[in-house]
Amino acid sequence: MGRTGLQNIAKKQFQGERIKENRGGDRKSHLSQEKKDNVRKFIGKLRGSESHYGRNKSKRIYLMAGLSIKKIHKIYNTNTTDELKVKLSMFRRIFVSEFNIGFKSPATDVCSYCTILNHKIKTYPSGSKERNDVIIEKRIHKKRANAFYQLMRQDVEDSISYCFDLQQIQPLPKAPVQEAYYLRQIGFYSFCIVDLKGLKPQFYCWSEEQAGKGSTEISSALLHFLLNTDFQSHTILRLFSDGCISQNKNNIVIRTIMYYLQTTRTSLKEIHMHFPNRGHSFLPADRVFGRAEKLLRNKPTIIAKEEYIEIFKELGQLYSLGQDWELKDTKDLKKFYKDLKNISNMKRIFFKVSEVNGKRSVRVRAMENFIYEGNETYENLNKKSFTINMLNRMQPKTLPLSRSLSNEKRWM
């Protein structure tokens, strides 16, 4: 230390001042602390959505698919003062280490009509009449879609509610081997029926060499569910499913429900079916499938379908085709019932039972909207040659469980 330094120390001691050490140490952290606090405040205000599937009730939230950390950092710096702007490296470190935030995957199953309207909104100039008209049209479309979920949340007196859906096809065998990936595997199918709380799911499982994934399989599983479920003296059964024409929303399923109501002694007097707008079909069954996906991710190799069955048994009741339920020729019911016309446009289909002189009859009412009711009336879909005695004698026959596979899938 030089002479000047010693004189300064002596002077401060004589004046009673505290001598401050200025050599080394952290001179920058206190300068960036305010910036870090501002970044945390900004990120904390981001509003995302929980996982659609509700996997394990995670606290992680998801932002829009089009966003990224880099884009959010740019938004932050654009809307803050120069003194509080930060580098991307600092922003990324706080975002990743202190917050549980992810980004949604790009949507692959969206409403085509919503996509068209969104494109039109971007095309027309801001404030133009055309753009405002499209925005209003989209708002109305969204409200119609939300009406389905309003129906699902309704508490209808003396009713019990379920939803059903077919899970995404699972590959068999499933193996982390490149050769197996490029070969054509057979499919393992899982049809789930669950209450609206997502509790006590029931799985109907089969593989592709046994049967397909069309209306016959879905209606057979649904018939088994109806025949073997205790509805606890409820008089109304409410069913919710997507509007897939080849599986859920078709005359084969309609005839199967009519057959059940006319040939079975049950407390049910009405069955209500509800179908959402296309692209807006988020059901409680999807949450169950989310839990299944989590278990399947932990098992990278599955050689036999029995391994799939054991996994689904961990989630709920499982019925294996050929052991617990049978594939019925529900298409043959066409000889007794007429088609419900214009079924593809219907949002609600009601079945109502009446009994006269000990004979049960079922009438059907179909509506093209969720809330408002027009002039639709209950109609009789029985054919002229129909008799209940004939229906009781001619039960749907059991179909053999053998389905031809393509040569590409016979490598196993």
UniProtKB/TrEMBL annotation:
InterPro entries per the UniProt record, alphabetical: DUF7869
Superkingdom in the source lineage: Eukaryota
A Pfam family this chain is assigned to: DUF7869
Region (Disordered) location: 1-34
Compositional bias per record (Basic and acidic residues), positions renumbered to this chain: 14-34
Stretches assigned to the DUF7869 domain: 210-352
Name the UniProt record assigns to this protein: (apollo) hypothetical protein
